[in-house]
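Entry 14. Two folds queued back to back today. First construct below, sequence then structure tokens.
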Amino acid sequence: MHTPFDFKEGADRTVYVKPVAVADLPKEVQDSAGGHEQLYAVHDAEGGQLALVTDRRTAYVLARQNDLTPVAVH
């Protein structure tokens, strides 16, 4: 089974966490945002989105649970 957090051997294990305005997301994501105005996206080094979560802490925990190094993007 492959998940977005499966990185190739020797690959850069850094992921980037950035805030995302819910208003900038597709309508179906906005509808499921539970009233949040901002979410946090976790991206790989190539810019691919791996996850979208409700808060920064969860983004960091998710990254670390997958043996990745989270870095904040402003």
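Second construct, same run, same settings:
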Amino acid sequence: MKYKKKKLVIENFKASVLANKYSTPLYCYSYKKLKENIDNFKKSFNEINPLICFSVKSNSNKTLLSEICKLGLGADVVSIGELMRALKAGISPNRIVFSGVGKTSQEIDFAVKKKILLINAESKSEVLEIEKISKKNKKITNIGIRLNPNTDAKTLRQISTGKRENKFGVSEKIFLSLVNYIKKSKNLKLKCLSVHIGSQILENEPYEKMLKVLEKLLKKTKHNFEYIDLGGGMGINYEDKKKQLNLKRYCLNIKKFLKKYNSKIIFEPGRSIIGNCGYLISKIIYIKETDKKEFIILDAAMNDLMRPALYSAQHRIIPLIKNSKKSKKIYEFVGPICESTDKFLTKKNFQELNEKDFIAICDVGAYGMSLSSNYNLRPKAAELLIKKSKVQIINKRQSLKDLI
């Protein structure tokens, strides 16, 4: 994404032309950026040669999953729907990991029959259910146990998953008891120790603490785990002031860890792969003046991009066509939904805007479309993939006729 002659360009296509042709709100993804992110991730960890399973919950578009598959990634899924979508996109079952605290009997049965790489169990009850279903199907199922390491990811409270008060994983005491139980099972094979401490992590310290917790636990289990699933959570730079996670440093710490334990590492990245590939283009419907600020009312809303309303997340907003005039007023970018939380960003010193102008909300590739809804009976936006010299509609705009 860059400006050419003051016009925003995504892989040589003018964003304003795309907005006029395909209407708004409109999700656009850059294939070039997607490939670059995957290549950089692989390069950062090439010394440990991990299995990289893309987190489907971050973006479940089938075409994007197919491209991600072609670029050599597996999948991390948390529902039967995501598992079906991953398989449909061409991802091999032996490169799929099934996570999540509440897998139903139907979901487990489907995963067992498909012979996926791992089902990462998160409670004793789930282990017993997987065993029962495996016995019924006369199968031996590869499973992992997810540990709750009680490690603070130093990120948003709403996306922390590795602390004692979070619903994810099991305590050390339960973990050790499950290891002993699974070893005696005829229908379960314990392959993996799994852990995931949270999302949007931008510091290395939480990962380093997590690895120390795993070291202590592995000494106690005395079990040779074929896989150590370290989850994902790697953050991206939503704001220019934010620092980036040092992936090379993380790799060096894992290398030290692996000197003691001969296991293959699994990662489950989502946001760091797809987050900064996506842009949400929106048109200004009205500009509503008040004494202190101007409300820039967009045709995109919290149903299209939930993160700001859900997490108070800050996404950069940029104009599709630049000008040199600075507004003296504060701009508050908001959507048309009947909720006060339907707002995106408040900005000073933004360029002057007019009604019917277009803007782009940046870094929406992860948890953008996948969290979208039909709230206020609003149709879901269209999605485009921009790849080299082609623009592909990878999800048609939902029609009011179909919705009603």
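Quick look at the second one. The two ends are 36 Å apart (CA to CA). The chain has a mean pLDDT of 93.
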